[in-house]
Amino acid sequence: MSEKSSLLFLCQRIPYPPDKGEKIRAWRILDHLSRRFSVYLGCFVDDERDWAHTDIVAGRCAGTHFARLDPRRARLRCLGGLVSGKALSLPYFYDRTLAAWTEAVLQTHRPDAVFVYSSAMAQYVLNALERPGRFVMDFVDVDSDKWGQYAASCSFPMSWIYRRESERLLAFDRAVAAAASASVFVAEPEAALFRRLAPEAAEKTVAIANGIDADYFSPDRDYPQIFTPADGPVMVFTGTMDYWPNVDAAIWFADEILPLIRQHHPTACFYVVGANPSPEVMALKERDGVVVTGRVEDVRPYIAHADVAVAPVRIARGIQNKVLEAMAMARPVVTTPRALEGIDAAAGREVLLGSDAGSFAAAILSVLNGSAPSSLGASARAMVLRAHDWEALLAAFDPLLGIGEGAGGSADIAHDQGAEKIGQAHG
Predict the structure, then answer these.
(1) Where are the domains positioned within the chain?
(2) Which band of pLDDT confidence, cut at 50, 70 and 90, is reported for residue 405?
(3) Rounded Cα distance, 148 and 171, in Å
(4) Which residues, at least 6 apart from 392, have a Cβ–Cβ distance to it below 8 Å?
(5) Which one-letter DSSP state was computed for residue 375?
(6) Going by C-beta distance under 8 Å and a sequence separation of 6 or more, which residues neighbour residue 98?
(7) Over the stretch 120-172, which tens digit does the pLDDT of each residue have?
(8) 404: left (phi over 0), alpha (psi -120 to 50) or beta
(9) Angle formed by the axes of helices 321-328 and 376-387, nearest 10°
(10) Could you tell me the pTM of the whole model?
(11) Could you tell me which CATH number the domain at 229-387 has?
(12) CATH 3.20.20.70 corresponds to the domain 5-211+389-426
């Protein structure tokens, strides 16, 4: 086509810098779609440091609106959700200026398609006076199920709040899926779960996985040595450390798994690497053998020089990018079955699994004592190169958004073509 079609793109956080899972996927999709559409992007900025990156994002777009999100005020808005009966995620991510901007884009530019990333942002489309017929919803994960997991792990009153959020958010997500021409999830187990929870939308629910930049996360680069011989064998866990599943994982590892390792390796160290460590995570620094780094400029040296990369995640949805990154760097990875969902890796050949503290520690010790397969890291990287190439995966979004169709192509055709490409990408 001689002139690009236009697209409205809504996401809950500015997708740059792509330094954590949700932003990595959003940035890759935005970058991909900006080569095919004139993109109008609306999103929130909830980290003051991210305002420095608005020009980079705007450079990919025909128009942008960045709404400031103050987490404290957003939490206060959630109280209105308790009164109104809404899922609390909706008032948390609501902004009048963003709603007005979205309506103006829809009315003035009449975009050919809408792409929404994260279900709370769909409220701006559902409430609009009109929207394009082609509306692709990238849920990424089944967040309602995650809230249910939170409820099961907490005591009253938080268990009641989380259970309520699980129920109300699922109801909202089903309404969104009914309105969307396609609903996308990051992994087939996520898509399969949503098909069971929302059977009315099953026929237009697909999975498109995350990729990995295998050149960036490469074992063949020289990385500065971070650790000292006094550290002993090192286990590294990476992630955003105010995210509750990561907080839970770090505490569980320090409480129950590390002591088992140190029975055999008294100088073993557990490095918790990632931004915004919560008070509970910061408190782990007081323990022997635990290092909490906070934000680092580059996680790769920590992964590259670790004896084992660990992902002791017990509460999880979707794909764990931390697992893909360590696999891409050909490191031995020990994780939980839940954290491996969505990654088609062979346990015992490409990763090692531990479902409880004892089996998790035993898997780590098998690496440290040399009884684990020596080819574990190489096999992991080969799997990532084979199944998680970004370009192949991102191409599956094109038919869902009408790219490559003739005039008058239907959303159903787009869905069928997208499903075919998804199958090819995972074949």
Answers:
(1) 5-211+389-426, 229-387
(2) low
(3) 14
(4) 211, 424, 425
(5) T
(6) 42, 44, 65, 67, 124
(7) 999 999 988 888 989 999 999 999 999 999 999 889 999 999 999 999 999 99
(8) left
(9) 120
(10) 0.89
(11) 3.40.50.2000
(12) no
